[in-house]
Design brief:
CATH class: Alpha Beta
Distance between the termini: 18 Å
CATH architecture: Roll
Strand content: 25-35%
Number of strands: 17
CATH superfamily: Alpha carbonic anhydrase
Number of helices: 6
Length: about 280
Amino acid sequence: MHGQNHFPISILLISITILLYSTSTSALDELEYSYNEESADGPKHWGDLKREWAACKGDMQSPIDLSNERVTLIPNLGKLTSFYKPQNATVLNRGHDVVVTWKGDAGSININGNEYFLQQSHWHWPSEHTINGKRYELELHMVHVSPQKDGTNKTAVVGILYKYGLPDPFLSELEKYIVEVPDEDEETSIGVIDPSKIFKDSNMYYRYMGSLTTPPCTEGIIWTINTKIRTVSKGQVMLLKNSVLKYYAKKNARPVQILNQREIGFYDSIMAQNVPHYY
C-alpha cells in the first residue's frame, strides 16, 4: 500500500508551507499568549485574544484526560505503522518550545487509508495529555499533514509521553544543537535526522478527535497517543526548559480540556485478536 498514490512533491511542499504558517508561527507571534493560568493572556483567555483564535473556545479542544471510564475498544483501528525515512532537518526556538522540522519528504503514517506526511516534532513539559488523571514529565508531538484534493490539509498528531528515567535517545542526539540554538526566530541546520528512531509503530494507543493545543487551536485534528510510556532524564527536560526560560519559566502545557460528547477510541492488538467477528 505504501508508495502508491503519492501527491507530487510540489503539492506536498505547498501543504507543508501552509501548515508551517498555521502551526509554526514565529517566536514573536507566540509571545502573544502565555501559559500563566492567572494571566490575562493565559489559556482561559486564548480564544478572546484574537478573532482567528476563537476555536480555542470550541467543544473539541485538546489536550484531554484519557480516562478508562470513557474509553471504547475499537478493534478495527488496526496497528499504527510508520513509513519514515532520514531527511535533513532544522531546530528552532519558537519562544514557547523547541521544534525540529524536516525539510523534505521524511515519510508518513497511514490512518484510515490516508497518508499523513511528517512535518515536525516539538515538546511540552509537563505532558499535556493525562492518563486517568496522571500527568507525565514530558510529551512529544509528531505533526503530520495529508494534502486533500480540494487544496486543504488534514492534520494528525502522534503523542508520546515520558516519565523520568534513562535519557531519551532522540534528545541525546539533539542535545548539542539545543544548547547552541539561538533564542530568536532563526533555524539551525542539524543534518540528517531519521524519524524512525523516534517512532516506528504502535500496537496499543488511544485515538480521538481534537485540536491543536496552541493558538489558533484548530479543531479536526486526529490524535494518536501511544500507551507506552518512555523515559527521559531530568537533565534533558531541564535543557528544554532552559532553552525557552527567557519566555516561559516553568511549563508550556495547556490545561486539560473538557471531553464533551467525544469518543476516546482504544486499540490493543492482543485484545483485538480475541474480539468475536473481528474483521
